[in-house]
Amino acid sequence: MQRRPRRNRKSQAIRNMVEETRLSVKDFIFPMFLIDGINQKIEVASMPGIYRYSLDLMLKEIEECVNLGIMAFDIFPAYPESKKDKYATESHNQETFYLKAIHKIKTIFPEVVVMTDVAMDPYSSDGHDGLVENGKILNDETLEILGKMSLAQAQAGADILGPSDMMDGRVGFIRDILDENGFTDVSIMSYTAKYASAFYGPFRDALDSAPKSGDKKTYQMDAANYYEALVEADLDTEEGADFLMVKPALAYLDVIRLLKDNSNLPIAAYNVSGEYAMIKASAEKGWLDGERAMLESLLSIKRAGANVILSYFAKEFALITKD
Ligand code: PBG
Asked: What one-character-per-residue DSSP string does 229-256 give?
């Protein structure tokens, strides 16, 4: 035998040398859930180890994460039903707790990257990402609301806006509004290929944001489609996106690779709530080794081509790998 590939696997030191993919804490954005109030820390039932925090406790959590090397956070607000309406008005109320919290986080941790979510669902009484009229999700009318929301988030100090609703033309619309108002430095991480997925279930529990009727299939992508992700990627690129995201991650590793091979922009992948819940639930049952399953999944996302990984495992990864 001339070739014996096993020679390069014979010891941990050799395996370390030939390792093609290496995860670093710098790869991660940690998504976190914010609620109004003080001294609140409520675990999300379907996401063990993940909490909804009031701002005071979120600041402590961010400090702990920063000490572990995590430098980027994506903050999602959970609003009570009483604050929701058809037009997601609360999303651009300057006094709303979410915008005040973004400002506070950036004031206390100016070096940290704060990403915000641009979509109507946390504020919508219909639980949809767009304006609902006679059972239809209106596109262009939704853009107007997204524009106001984006401007308010930029004014609060967000570094990266994450339009997550899959409305057509949103990236260009938001880019224009930001630029017209002097926010040329605020970045856009577009949810480019966001699929209509069952894996968002635990997130909708965390935010109480499930649609009141219908589903999200007229705006989010069909799981069957691959090349369609390139149509979205081309548009987001033309419209000025700084990052392209694929979501969910694990069932769409092929799409991550597709965008990586066809774009020069950094590619992000969102390791979503359901992907977190699956590993946690089976580890709790003793059915698999949760830590190894986590590391293997995160590695696969990076190997597929993701430069940036949004994951609820970010802190756990940082804790395990710190020296
Ligand atoms: C909605 C939004 C969702 C997620 C992020 N932003 C859910 C949805 O589209 O219904 C899901 C994140 C996750 O599951 O972790 N704008």
From this structure: HHHHHHHHHHTT-SEEEEESSGGGHHHH
